[in-house]
Structures are given as C-alpha cells and as structure tokens.
Design a protein that fits this description.
Helices cover about 50% and strands about 15% of the residues. The chain is built from 24 helices and 15 strands.
C-alpha cells in the first residue's frame, strides 16, 4: 500500500483546499516507509515531517495544544489552555466572576487563533492542524441540545474556517472522521471543505498485511484469511488473527461485520444447501439454473443485478435464495427493517457502501422490502426515505455489477414504489414463490411422509394422503415433517399410513388462509416472466381469473 499522504498532497495541490476532511476508513492503520503500519494521524504527521511542514494537533482533553516544528524536534511551542483560563480568572474581579464561564471559551478560541497565526508567521512555512475527532469537538446533534459553550465553539470555528484570512492564509486544517454527517453542518457544509474518501483495504492490501505479521501462517492460510476478511479493516483483521484459528475465523469475521454495520439490523452467513435440495418449484428452478445463475457469472454490464422475490409468508423465499447463493459460493448479507431505527441511517448507508465496494461476490437481501420502498415513503424526510434513496443509489452503482446481487423480499409486492418496480431497476425481474401445488405438492408429500414411514409412500398411498395436504405452505410442510419425525421417535417405530393421516388431520392451521391467498395473488399478478407462472400456456385466462378472485377478497375486507 503506498504512503497515503502522498496521494492526498497531490490532490490538495490540484484543488488548493485549506480545509480537508478525510472520511471513511480513518480509524484504520496504513503502511508507511520501511513496511511499518501506523494510525492515520501518525502517518500524516510523519509524512509532513519529511516535507518540512508544521503539525499542530489539538489534544482532545482540552488541556493543551502542542505545535511541533517539522524537521526540528528541539523546537516546539505549547498553547496552554489551563494557563489561559487561570490568567483570565485572575484578571476578573468579583463583579465579573459570573461572566467567567460565558467568556472563557471565546477567549481561548481567540487566543488560539492568534497563537496559530503567530506561529505560522514566525516559522516561515505552512501550518497543518490535524484534528483526529472533529465529531467530538463539533458534534452534529441538534443545536437546541447543545450547551451555550458548544454552540459558541462551533460558531467561532465556522467563522474562522470560512473566513478570507483562513482561505488565503498558510494554515491548513485536516479533519479525520468516518462521515461528514457526524460533524455539525456549520462545519461540514463550509464551501471550501474538500472531502477525500478512504476505502477499506482490498484483497492485495489485506494479504500484504497478513504476510507482514510473520505469524508463520502457511500460504494457504494467508490466502484464506485474505479472502474471508473482505470488508474488514486491517485493525479488525489483526484482532481476529491474534485471537482466532482457521476453524473459528468465519464466525469472528461475521461478528466484526455486525459490529460495524449494526448488530441488530443484519445477519451474515454462508448458505449450506444448493438448488438440488429445493423441493417443488420446478419451473422456477429450471429458470434459475439455466438463465439467472449463468447471468450472475457474467462480471460486466449484462450480469443479473438481482430480483424482487414475492410470495406469501412461509413460502420459502429465503431458503430458495440461499440455495442460489450457495451455487455461486456467495455469502449472504440480510438486512431487516430495524435499520430504520438506527440513530444515523445515513451513516449505515455509507458503511454498507464501503463494505460492498471491498467485496467480490455477495447476495444482499432486503427483508420486508415493502417497508423500505413503499410508495408512501417518498417524502423528503424520515429514515425510510433516507435509507431507500441510499439503497437505490448503491443498487445502481455500475462498479457492483456482477459482484453484488440484490434481492428484495416481500409478501406485498404491490406496495413497492413504481421507481423500484420499473424496467431497468431491480423490479425488472419479479418472480413468485407460491404454495406447492400439483407436481410440486407431490414432491412435498413424499418427503414429509417418508419421515414417519421411513420409506417412500406407494402410489395408492399418495392418493390417500393428497387431500389432507391441500393448502399447506412450505413452512407448514417442514413443520409437519418435524412432527412426524418426533412422533416416530417417541413411539419407537415406523408410522402406518393411518397414523400419518391422523397427525395431519390433528393439526389446525392459523386462520390466515385468505390473507396468504391475497399475498399469493399479488405475487402472481406482478410476475414479470410468463414462464414462471404455474401454467404459462394459460396465462391470459389465468390472469383474468386471479384479478377477479383478488377483487372478491378485497370486497370481503382482505388487503
């Protein structure tokens, strides 16, 4: 990895900015001269010293601000805030004591500004102020919640940083923050602020760092660690390598990822079953195997970008998509609606984008997509509109084609906005997953009954079983199979046909059949591929019948 400051210096020379924000992966370590790795602020300081530039780094405990003269370690000056406060207090008489706290911060700010100007003038070279945590000094929370001292500090800083004297002077301020949204808008919206994005390390950079640790890893282990740690910082990778072995590496990596993006808002895993393990859905599996998966392997603009997956609750949407991800050896990142409750949804979007930029292959699920992309959420405020606009922007990113595949899972595809359903968006492909019927139901009956009988049912037994399995969802059939296994184990023998029928008839399904049917009809009517309908040759006739049935359900109050 090259010395990062060299690239920043060249960009600064081109833009001529005095105020710079380094955002993104600022809390990581970076390579310096001689193969050393150090924190970003230390790297900046060491690079500036080699360039004969002054470095001023305010101490966040506000006791002192030290200015080191680059290239001359014997010469340094210190602006002592505590001494300035004492001087101010000693000068104030008894009648002015109550004004002390109100004017002290302003006094310190003005004194420091004069100090910076005098140091820069006396040294004859430029001065760089590196602020490692501007979100602490200039927090972004609502101004009404800030103390008068905080508001005064921000106002003075904004006035100085946007002044003509600063812009035309020889003082440069470098802010290090994960996002400009963590900094007060009075600072982050200054017109002369130049933003430079720092990305997460790529595969080659992670591999070089692993090799630099000299942990006596084999070449195969180094490659495995570099591949499995995509999306993590070098510091996170370092912690994992010191605390984990190969067998536990993936689990610890997933934990680090959840900490970065939001532990309660997502899950991350590698699916363990493939498409051949999916029961039923014959036409859909044929389409996925012969059309969709080959397109996913095209790492260019014609690659599949994803799909909207619609179907009633319990139809097996996640399980089917997991099998497709396994066919492509892709991990799954599943995002749920609790992300809308995060304090900074914009920050989540930025972290997600940086993470996806570092990956080569991933499936992203948006659970309950009708909440994220509902037509009613298209306002100008609110977490829903912020997150949905951010997700759409990332989905359209050309650099992700062939690497990041998006799947919007929903039971009510009709509630999705027109923007997300239009051609050219993810909604260009909407396929339905419905309850097993016909040949699909035949496969399920055999699979479920085998659990209790310990053999496949005969043809005449299938005819006796079929009426009792009508209308069951995929999840209900899986639960029924588990129950038959339990009954067989408790009775310590194989079950007879009559006993299986008895268990099936004893089960009472939740009274949500009409709601699930409504969801199924919406999935069928919004399908964008005729070949994925139950009987494609009868599509026009079927569509008319579905619309009529849907209207009857709506008249009865189901929607």
């Amino acid at each position: 990895m090259p010395v990062i400051w060299n690239g920043i210096e060249s960009e600064l020379a081109a833009c001529g900015a005095n105020l710079v924000l380094l955002k993104g992966n600022v809390a990581d370590i970076y390579s310096a001269y001689g193969g050393l790795y150090m924190k970003l602020d230390d790297l900046i300081e060491s690079s500036l010293i080699s360039s004969q530039v002054l470095v001023c780094q305010p101490d966040l405990n506000l006791h002192s601000m030290v200015v080191d003269f680059a290239g001359n370690t014997d010469k340094s000056e210190k602006f002592d805030i505590v001494k300035a406060l004492d001087d101010l207090a000693n000068d104030a008489d008894a009648g002015e004591r109550n004004l002390f706290t109100l004017v002290s911060l302003q006094y310190i700010a003005e004194e420091f500004e004069r100090f910076v100007a005098s140091v820069g003038k006396s040294s004859g070279c430029s001065l760089t102020i590196v602020i490692s945590s501007p979100d602490v000094l200039f927090p972004s929370y609502i101004s009404s919640l800030q103390s008068p001292e905080d508001r005064r500090t921000i106002a003075l800083a904004a006035k100085w940083l946007s002044s003509h004297q600063f812009i035309s002077g020889n003082v440069r301020v470098v802010l290090l923050a994960e996002s400009e949204r963590l900094i007060c808008p009075s600072i982050s919206s200054i017109s002369n602020l130049h933003i430079i994005e720092l990305n997460l390390p790529d595969y080659q950079q992670r591999l070089e760092y692993i090799l630099s640790l000299n942990f006596n890893f084999s070449e195969a282990d180094c490659t495995l660690y570099a591949e499995k740690s995509a999306g993590l910082s070098l510091l996170a990778l370092d912690r994992i390598l010191r605390d984990s072995d190969v067998s536990g590496f993936s689990a610890v990596t997933q934990s680090q990822l959840k900490n970065m993006l939001g532990r309660e808002s997502l899950s991350y895993y590698f699916p363990g079953h493939k498409l051949e393990s999916i029961l039923g859905l014959h036409s859909l599996k044929f389409y996925l195997k012969n059309d969709f998966i080959p397109r996913c392997k095209r790492h260019n603009h014609i690659s599949a970008r994803g799909a909207i997956v619609a179907g009633p609750v319990g139809s097996g949407k996640n399980y089917l998509l997991d099998s497709v991800a396994a066919e492509l050896s892709a991990p799954v990142l599943s995002i749920n609606s609790s992300v809308l409750n995060l304090p900074y949804p914009e920050l989540f979007i930025e972290r997600l984008e940086r993470y996806l930029d570092a990956l080569d292959n991933i499936f992203v699920y948006i659970q309950d997509a009708d909440i994220f992309f509902a037509e009613s959420s298209g306002g100008f405020c609110g977490a829903e509109s912020i997150v949905s606009a951010g997700l759409i922007r990332i989905m359209e990113k050309a650099a992700h084609h062939g690497r990041v595949f998006w799947f919007l899972l929903t039971t009510r595809v009709d509630l999705l906005s027109l923007e997300i359903r239009r051609q050219g968006q993810i909604g260009d492909l909407i396929f339905p997953i419905i309850d097993p019927k016909g040949e699909d139901l035949h496969d399920y009956i055999s699979w479920v009954s085998e659990a209790g009988m310990k053999r496949l049912p005969h043809k005449h037994e299938m005819e006796d079983l079929r009426p009792h399995f009508h209308g069951l969802s995929a999840s209900a059939l899986v639960a029924l199979r588990d129950e038959l296994l339990a009954v067989s184990e408790i009775r310590q023998r194989n079950l007879a046909l009559s006993e299986i029928i008895e268990v099936v008839r004893d089960r009472l399904e939740p009274d949500i059949g009409n709601i699930r049917r409504y969801q199924e009809l919406q999935a069928l009517l919004n399908c964008t591929r005729k070949t994925l309908l139950p009987t494609p040759e009868r599509a026009p006739e079927q569509i008319d019948n579905w619309r009529a049935e849907l209207q009857r359900l709506e008249e009865n109050g189901y929607s």
